[in-house]
Specification:
This protein is mainly beta. It is elongated, with a radius of gyration of 19 Å. An 8-stranded antiparallel beta barrel has the order 1-2-3-5-6-7-8-9. Helix content is 6%, strand content 73%. It has one helix at 2-14; strands at residues 27-44, 51-73, 76-88, 92-95, 100-120, 123-142, 145-167, 170-180, 188-200.
Length: 201
């Protein structure tokens, strides 16, 4: 995945400042993003009881988002964003002596706010924080068979990144996110590095 981030960074760096529109980072936008996802899970509660996984799993992540930025000062931007995300091959399984435990994350929905500062023409550095809801399927197999249950996990996220215009209505961004999916018990941490492309209306 490093090549994705390096390519996006190189592209952003190569674009002259004149590509930015007159009133940058203000108004509605929509975009797509993709990148790297790591779920680091210890022992967590689930619909089938407490599950001990004690593993981490790397996977490919992608999704889409919509948002709105408010240019509240010449160099200060506040915004709100909603997104939906998915990951591929992110099921985490642990085989014990008598049991097989697994967690299979499905979709995630997030609503977050961000605050940014325009560090150069067409370039915004920002921090982000908000709420996430993730759908996760848990299963436990033992001598009596397999039981499984899907449930929603409430979580919070924090992160930050850099966004840069590459055309009057198009920007690219690189962002890191940390999400705590433990839902009040155990350990279920998510780390993401995401590259996105946004179109501004």
């Amino acid at each position: 995945m490093k090549s994705i981030y390096l390519a996006a960074l190189a592209l952003a760096s190569a674009v002259p400042a004149g590509a930015a529109q007159a009133e940058e980072f203000d108004g509605p936008y929509a975009g797509v993003q993709l990148g790297w996802n790591e779920d680091d899970v210890g022992t967590v509660g689930s619909g089938v009881g407490r599950i001990s996984v004690d593993k981490s799993q790397d996977s490919f992540a992608g999704g889409g988002y919509i948002g709105y930025d408010f240019r509240v000062a010449p160099k200060v931007v506040l915004g709100v964003e909603g997104d939906i995300g998915f990951a591929a091959d992110d099921r985490i399984t642990r085989k014990g002596r008598d049991t097989i435990s697994s967690l299979d994350p499905k979709r995630s929905l997030s609503l977050s706010a961000r605050a940014g500062y325009i560090v150069a023409d067409g370039t915004l550095a920002y921090i982000r924080g908000g709420y996430t809801n993730a759908r996760v399927r848990a299963s436990l197999t033992d001598a009596d068979g397999t039981i499984a249950s899907s449930s929603d996990r409430d979580a919070w996220l924090v992160g930050g990144g850099v966004e840069k215009y590459i055309m009057p209505d198009v920007s690219v961004r690189l962002e890191y996110r940390f999400t705590d999916l433990s839902d009040g018990s155990g350990k279920f941490d998510r780390h993401q590095a995401l590259a996105g492309v946004s179109y501004r209306f």
